[in-house]
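Running this now, will post back.
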Amino acid sequence: MSITIPASTVAGTYYLIAKSDGDDAIAETNEANNTYGSFITIGADLVVTSLMAPDAGAGLPLVITDTTKNLGSSTAPASTTTYYLSTNNDVLDAADLVLGNRAVPSLGSGVSDTGSVTVTIPAGTPTGPFYIYAKADSANAVVETSESNNTAYRLIRVGPDLIVPSIVRAGLSPGPDPRSR
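Update: finished.
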């Protein structure tokens, strides 16, 4: 048997209860064991399931790609995923810098949307490790079954990364690459 949850049902956690002999038409030896319940969640639940961003240079463009997915049981209306630059990976906070955002279309239950945005790391950003955050439904416009799972982050390095590819000694043949040991 299948049931239909009314479309107007507000997002949240509910109990679904089934009762045998629902109209109490049968005299039983035990009338107290006729129900069984289970909780269900109703509503959308937007999460960032994938986030890609390469290392970058201050003042230079950076392409960020994410996948935003609706893990919920209801269709999520169109929303926005926003990208931030942060110095920490433990929390997205007011000190983090907004780099840009992208529009995410309405997503049915279990449906994903992948998109890329080109942003610029501010020119004055010092060299070092930073975190790129992506937050689904960053405006908190979608009523979700969970508002605590909307973010993902990725470590990037900002600034140059110089390497010595080889050493050639005058008059001698090059030796083995010491990095290959």
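The beta strands are 12-19, 35-42, 46-52, 61-70, 79-86, 97-104, 112-120, 128-135, 151-158. More later if anyone needs it.
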